[in-house]
C-alpha cells in the first residue's frame, strides 16, 4: 500500500472514486465503493455495465 496522504491508514475512503470530490454528510455506496453523490453512483453503474458489455464481446470473440 502506498504511503502517500491520499490513502488512509485504516483503508477507509477519503474521497470519491469517480470524481475525487470530498464526501458530504451522505455517502452513496455501490459494490462497497464509497461515492459522493447519486450522480457519481450512476456514472459508476454505467461504467460497470459498459465493462461487462466489453467483456462479453471479448469472450464471444475467443
From TrEMBL:
<protein>
    <submittedName>
        <fullName>Uncharacterized protein</fullName>
    </submittedName>
</protein>
Amino acid at each position: 500500500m502506498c504511503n502517500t496522504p491520499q490513502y488512509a491508514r485504516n483503508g477507509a475512503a477519503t474521497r470519491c472514486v469517480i470524481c475525487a470530490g470530498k464526501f458530504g454528510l451522505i455517502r452513496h455506496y455501490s459494490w462497497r465503493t464509497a461515492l459522493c453523490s447519486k450522480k457519481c453512483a450512476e456514472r459508476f453503474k454505467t461504467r460497470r455495465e459498459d465493462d461487462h458489455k466489453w467483456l462479453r464481446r471479448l469472450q464471444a470473440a475467443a
